[in-house]
Design a protein that fits this description.
The protein is an alpha/beta fold. The chain has a single domain (3-184), classed as UDP N-Acetylglucosamine Acyltransferase, domain 1 (3 Solenoid), CATH 2.160.10.10. The chain has helices at 3-8, 18-36, 45-54, 119-123, and strands spanning 13-14, 57-58, 63-64, 68-70, 76-78, 83-84, 88-91, 96-98, 103-104, 109-111, 113-114, 126-129, 132-134, 139-140, 145-146, 151-152, 157-158, 163-164, 172-175, 180-184. β19 and β20 form a beta hairpin. The longest helix is centred in the first third of the chain and has 19 residues, at 18-36. The chain starts with a helix and ends with a strand. The relative contact order is 0.12.
Length: 186
């Protein structure tokens, strides 16, 4: 099993693997072009081509405010009308699935990457990754951190500064560190 296959299956893998390093380098080159682009509300053909090369999928009418950062890009799948504001970081060592009509404020961080608690494993370069899912019609406030393996349910809101360590049920308002559900959104 390759390190890429291990990474995508949630097993421990070595992030310094040459194939993974080459994939991250390709993403960095694309991000340099994307982040240098002038800001506007339309995705012109040149940007659309860059997004198509970087992301696993980006639906219609998506809007990405540079700067944006990710590890691979190819593991990020977005629905229609996704808005990603300034300075977001997606560590997509596992699949990140973002539904349609999702809004992300500045500085949102989606972290699929995790590291073992045992120091000797970390010293050997071992790490793991778990997928993140954000369902349709979600609003994520500024500075939110979403941890590995989390699903944020449809029509939910996550308050600014929250650290989401557990799943958020659909139609819920969650906030805090660690995030907890405060009430249903009706």
């Amino acid at each position: 099993m390759t390190e890429l296959e291990k990474m995508l299956s949630g097993k421990m893998y070595n992030g310094t693997d040459p194939q993974l390093t080459a994939m991250r380098t390709k993403a960095r080159k694309l991000l340099t072009e994307i982040n240098a682009a002038l800001l506007d509300t339309k995705v012109d053909p040149a940007k659309a081509a860059l997004y198509a090369e970087l992301f696993g999928a980006m639906g219609k009418d998506g809007w990405l405010q540079p700067p944006f950062f990710c590890d691979y890009g190819t593991n990020i799948f977005m629905g229609d009308k996704v808005f990603i504001n300034f300075n977001c970081v997606f560590l997509d060592c596992a699949r990140i699935t973002i539904g349609s009509n999702v809004f992300m404020a500045p500085n949102v961080q989606l972290y699929c990457a995790g590291h073992p608690l045992v120091a000797e494993q970390r010293a050997r370069g071992e790490e793991f990754a778990l997928p993140i899912t954000i369902e349709d019609d979600v609003w994520i406030g500024g500075g939110v951190i979403v941890c590995p393996g989390v699903t944020i349910g449809a029509k939910s809101v996550v308050g600014a500064g929250a650290v989401v360590t557990k799943n958020v049920p659909p139609a819920s308002l969650a906030a805090g560190n660690p995030a907890r559900v405060l009430k249903a959104v009706t």
